Amino acid sequence: MSSRDEILSRVRRNQPAPQPLPDVPAFDGATGFALERFKAAVVRMGGRVVDPPEDGNLTSFIRRLFPDAKVICSAVPEVQGNRPLTRVRAPAELEDVDVGIVRAVFGVGETGSVWLTDREFGVNTLGFLAQHLVVLLDPARIVGNMHQAYRERAQFDARYGVFMTGPSATADIEGILIHGAQGIRSMTIIPIALP
Amino acid sequence: MKRIDHSEASSKFIKAKDHLDFHDKRLWDLRKKRDRESEHLPEWEELRTLASAIKEHTLTHLADYLEEFERNAIANGAHVHWAMDAAEHNQIVLDIMRSRGARTLVKAKSMLTDECDMRPFLENRGIEVMETDLGERIQQLDDEPPSHIVVPAVHKLRGDVARVFSETIGTDPKNSDVHYLAESQRQHTRPYFLKADAGMTGANFAVAETGSIVVCTNEGNADLSVNLPRLYIASVGIEKIIPRIEHLGVFVRMLSRSALGSPITQLTSHFRAPRDGTEMHIVLVDNGRSGRLGMADFWYSLKCIRCGACMNTCPVYRRSGGLSYGATYSGPIGVIIDPTFNLRKYSSLPFASTLNGSCTSVCPVRINIHEQIYKWRQIIAERHQLPFVKQEAMRVAGKVLSSPKLYRAAVETAGTGIEHLPRFMMYSRLNAWGRQRDVPAAPQLTFRQWYLKNRGKR
Q: Which backbone phi and psi does A38 adopt, to 5 degrees?
């Protein structure tokens, strides 16, 4: 017998008496003031939320936020970078990116997370090799909690998808929190509707 | 196989006072942060009940869900492998890598690969393996197993890390600044990500409905390990399956709150299908799990989501350190899992507990940990796996405790005894309780004497 069949037959033989599957409620009591709640959660997780510029020019606004950035790679039409994603042949080529820009599909008020998939990134490593990440988010697309987030069922048919919550972080040495572990060192969220 | 002597091993840990104090404080701090999160969420107890019920449903229908998971993963373009035991798991990983000409592997944290002792197996066969989680990497470089399932190097202080890094990756031995050490590892690790032939993760959850692997991390290393190389391998214990995407809401809300006291990990990653031109392999591993599923008292341990809350709250774990358990899984959850791997080797572990039940009350999937610890003690005593001294002490205690007369006589003389016994008798090797503690001064009266004197007349 193959290991597969052996494992399945042992599991079948040993399974305890069947237990029912409970329904999961949405627990959607606290959904008011979604944006305020979201902002507080982002800050707690080490990110920041910055209001969009009044003149509407995101490209120059982001350059002002990161004056030392040399390589800017944008996956959104609203921002002009200097490293076109269309020319990237291998994911490792993004290793010198200083600032990456993406648009999240939605945000989660409870945790301050943003949902991103391979469709938004274009090249997935943009969210991890870049030193800093700027995320555009439509404030009307903030759900209350993780139960509601996982009810956006079609999103989870993406080949790759991730809830990103603040920058990469570690506290593995003496519990001292460090932002910028292996991935992005900072996350800046700009609440702005689709153009 | 040699029996692990937990109390002997922990005495080494207890001797290093700075380490012991920090370890105790750090883990208790995690426990307090967990409390703040759980108290903040009105539905916390309901979530625990749901999580437990979803896991029990899945485990009692596991074969069907495993087949559903396999079907969907294959439809996604992933390759699915099945491993009966650790040896088969390691061989499968080696075969995948060799047949693709892959020589370097960057990997995220996975308790399962530690359980399988995969790293030395691959390294002895010419594969370069790099742990990319900071804590796990510190332990790899120091040639030690992780001491905690979530924070692998929690038993080390910054000076220890400075020593390990200076000897291995060339940092300044005099610089033990934590930011400097973490940044040094980031700089050292990045070139490996960029050139690695293969990447590996474990799985926090595997979703039957979509065939997805879900990985919860903070450092970004798992997403780099998967999204850079052309080959991705996920090692998954068969108990990690959950039925549907919507069930992730319950578990994700509790995992990091229970583990670190943060509302969510910085990254919750969902790997469903390979990128164009790359391969995704999933190795489903049994290694004793199907057997455990058939153990009437112990199958509930398969609900575990590896948050480590039971370890952080355990007074014995906090004061003995994970390495003293001599097993992949330490702390309360380890104590009930390890004997299923080898009853004789791990027969002392169920005694590394005060049975205070704190582990059970923080467990997010409501595993009755302390009750299982007690049941393991019974099995071990029945099968004569107790060391002689403990056996004799228990025999005498059993006799005394079952007779009120004997008990009263023993308690009344015990007070006098404590005051007059020479120290060498109180703190001898035969009295394990005297070794790490001073017995408090005996009260003037026993409770019974006090009661008869003050309340007895009424």
A: -60, -45
Residue numbers of the domain that contains A76: 31-191
Nearest to A170 among B218, B227, B275 (CB): B218
Q: How far apart (Å, rounded) are the C-alpha atoms in residues B137 and B120? A: 14
| Complex ipTM more than 0.90, yes or no | yes
Please name the member of A19, A91, A181 whose beta carbon is closest to the beta carbon of B182: A181
Of the pLDDT bands very low, low, confident and very high (cuts 50, 70, 90), residue B81 is: very high
Read off the tokens for B225.
Answer: 């390990």
Task: For chain B, list the domains and their CATH numbers.
Answer: 41-287 (3.40.50.10420), 389-454 (no CATH)
Q: What is the pTM of this model?
A: 0.91
The CATH number of the domain where A109 resides is what? 3.40.50.10420
Distance (Å) from the alpha carbon of B393 to chain A's nearest alpha carbon: 37
* Residue B330 clears pLDDT 80, i.e. is over it: yes
If one counts the domains in chain A, the total is 1
In a domain, residue A80? The reply is yes
| 8 A C-beta contact, residue B138 and residue A172 | yes
pLDDT tens, residue by residue, B227-247: 999 999 999 999 999 999 999
Query: Does residue A188 sit at the B interface (CB-CB below 8 Å)?
Result: no
Q: Cβ distance B125 to B96 under 8 Å?
A: no
pLDDT of the residue at A31: 56
pLDDT attached to residue B415: 57
Across A68-82, average pLDDT:
97
Instruction: Write out the two tokens for A133.
Output: 């990440």
